[in-house]
Amino acid sequence: MSNTLRKDMHTGTEKHSGESENNVKKPKKPKKRLFSQKQKDMASGYLFISPFYLLFAVFGVFPILFSFYLAFFRWDGLGEMEFVGLNNFNIIFNDPLFWKSLYNTIIIGLMGTAPQLIVALLLAFALNSVLIKYKSVFRLAVFLPYVTSIVAVAIIFSVIFSNQESGLVNSFLGLFGIDPITWTRSEWGAKVAISAMIFWRWVGYNTIIYLAGMQAIPNDLYEAAKIDGATLRQQIWHITIPMLKPFIIFTVFTATIGALQIFAEPHIFQGRGGRPEGISIVLYLYRDAFGSNFFGTASATAIVLFFIIIIFSAANLLLVNRIGRSGKVGEK
Amino acid sequence: MNSEKNKLKSAKVFIYASLIIVGLASLFPFYWMFVMATNPNNLINRNPPVMTPGTEMFSNFQKVLESIPFFQAMLNSLIVTTSITFGVLILCSLAGFAFAKLHFPGRTVLFVFILGTMMIPPQLGLIPTYFIITELGWLSDLRAVIVPGLMNAFGIFWMRQYISSSVPDELIEAARIDGCSNFRIYWNIIVPVILPAFATLGIIVFMAIWGDYLWPLVVLQDQSTHTIQVALRSLMDDRVRDYGMILSGTFWATVPLIVVFLLFNRLFIKSITDGAVKS
Questions:
Q1: Which residues, 6+ apart, have CB-to-CB distance to A315 below 8 Å?
Q2: Taking Cα atoms as reference points, which of B182, B176, B166, B193 lies closest to residue A13?
Q3: Which pLDDT belongs to residue A144?
Q4: CB–CB contact A306 B124 (8 Å)
Q5: Residue range(s) defining the domain that contains residue A325
Q6: Is residue A51 in some structural domain?
Q7: Same structural domain, A260 and A312
Q8: The CATH number of the domain where A180 resides is what?
Q9: Which residues does chain B have within 8 Å of residue A313's beta carbon, measured at their own beta carbons?
Q10: In the structure, what pLDDT confidence band is assigned to residue A328 with cuts at 50, 70 and 90?
């Protein structure tokens, strides 16, 4: 039985390539193998995955461990390293600018992502509606900003939100008799401009993801609900939203983590050094390290940022679990 | 019945209206970028600002070329992005194949470890990595961006999932009986099957690396090694900003990507959603 099967496979491959012909004819009796298949699999398995581990050892493990080490030293990058204990953390925690950068990051993150996800959800509803034609055109239009690089977006919006009276937003506001705003130097102006960049670039991306989720919902669910007399709103609340939950969780997660790592937008909008109105944590870190050569305190900031990201991810998870549970209770 | 119809109609009008408004809002910055890129400064600084394309397309771009090595920067970006994309596709599909189809001790643990590395924010190791690059003598050298970029945990995860679901074990068994080595199995059986996954992962990696900013900014200090993103930012350095010039550079740096996107937009959108949804 197994012999005939073997033969079939051989003839099958014979047709395929001439090279295997040699292999087929030679080992009439099983040739003595130097290594067993198990050993071969082991060797090639480790070989194939080794590049990642080698790279990770050099550019992953070592830098991370060294960051934790460096956070306890004072170092300008050239001279001697001096052990200072927890002093670096003391320095940043007593620096008002650090707290400002944390505050800015959270505010800009909220302003840039929360409305964005809601609008994306609404857009996806609209694009999924049976009433609409030319869907692919609209889909293309909202997705195009995502193809633009973050730097390009930041530059375009820096010019749109320029401080001059002739700037696009300022001259628009002028139509309503509002005085021009110095966007880069005002507390809320800078935040609004940076949030607008984030909003514009990502709203289409999230729309497309929600849309993919909606299209995966089987139609009979809606049919059944309609037969039971469910209104459109009920359908949305009891079918669409629950079925979209994994997609919503994914977008909230990525948006949160992305928002905590904002860098290019304030760096370009407010100039290399940044300004207190828009500085983000990563920009604070970058400035400390590559502007002032305070590599010890900058490492301390990196570690604080790491824990902030962990805390936010955990909070997200907790929230997701809670929503999941209350949803189930509500159903019953 | 009639009111039902009317309701449907007004819903339709409402949806169309909102989609058109959003679509225009989405496209307007592109149009406006083109307007700025083709107008002279005196019109740009006028109030109200110009809203129609002008005639200065070439002279504005000429100023870009005087200010930054535009084509060199585009070439640098292209070199970095294509080498990383091809490198990642090969390394990740090999590792994905090993994790999906080869049995070796510690396979699960090693795979979970790779998944775990995806949680680490890249800024955590930023400063020491900078010093490693300095030690290697790779400052202002494209290798500083390319080599660390080859490490891609998501790609391995993605390839493993794809290979384990699309390549039947029987196919591999059959090839083994024919005496194929593991590498030949990879090359002659796995690679042809996973070409769609190459396209998807390739687009995701290409987009991410093309737009990468922080790391190239840190290590590519010499102007001749700038990627286009870093070069574009230096257009903003002048005290008196020439918006026509700045947006001309941004426009011509963005156009090639948009053209490629429009040509392959279905594949693009599918790749981005697949990449997001399946993880």
A1: none
A2: B176
A3: 93
A4: yes
A5: 90-331
A6: yes
A7: yes
A8: 1.10.3720.10
A9: 119
A10: very low
Under a CB-based contact definition with an 8 Å cutoff, are residues B150 and B87 in contact? yes
Residue of A nearest to B98 (CA): A45
* B26 three-state secondary structure: helix
Distance in angstroms (rounded) separating the CA atoms of residues A175 and A163 = 16
Which of these, A272, A315, A275, lies nearest to A290 by C-alpha position? A272
Answer yes or no: do B211 and A303 touch at CB < 8 A. no
B:51-90 residues touching chain A, CB 8 A cutoff: none
Q: B28 touching A, CB under 8 A?
A: no
DSSP strands (E only) in A2-147? 73-74, 82-83
Q: For residue range B102-116, what is the model confidence (pLDDT) as tens digits?
A: 999 999 999 999 999
DSSP character for A289? Answer: I
Q: Is the dihedral of CA B82, B86, B91, B97 positive or negative?
A: positive
Query: Looking at residue A187, what is its pLDDT?
Result: 92
Supply the pLDDT for residue A326.
52
Let me know if residue A82 belongs to a domain: no
Whether the CB-CB separation of A155 and B250 falls below 8 Å is answered with yes
The residues, ordered by sequence, that sit 6+ positions from B278 with a Cβ below 8 Å of its Cβ are B158, B161
- The interface pTM score, or ipTM, of the predicted complex is 0.93
- Chain A within 8 Å of B277 (Cβ-Cβ)? yes
Q: How far is A330 from chain B (nearest CA, A)?
A: 27
CA angle A74, A75, A79 (to 5 degrees): 130
Q: Is the pLDDT of residue B124 over 90?
A: yes
> What confidence tier does A143 reach under pLDDT thresholds 50, 70, 90?
very high
**Above 60 in pLDDT, residue A6?**
no
Query: Running DSSP on this structure, what letter comes out for residue A133?
Result: -
Domain count, chain A: 2
- Shared domain check, A171 and A117: yes
Dihedral of the CA atoms A269, A307, B214, B244 (nearest 10)?
A: -20
Q: Which two tokens stand for residue B140?
A: 């202002």
Distance CA A278, CA A101 (A): 7
Six-digit token pair at B54? 């002008």
Length of chain A: 332
Residue A20 within any structural domain of the chain: no
Q: Is B47 near chain A, with CB under 8 Å? A: yes
* Same-domain check for residues A187 and A109: yes
Q: C-alpha dihedral over A268, A270, A272, A275, to 10 degrees?
A: -140
User: How open is the CA angle A283-A287-A290, to the nearest 5 degrees?
Assistant: 125
Verify whether the Cβ–Cβ distance B233 to A155 is below 8 Å. yes
User: Is the Cβ pair A59, B148 closer than 8 Å?
Assistant: yes
**What pTM did the predictor assign?**
0.88
Distance in Å from the first CA to the final CA of chain B: 46
Quote the pLDDT of residue B1.
54
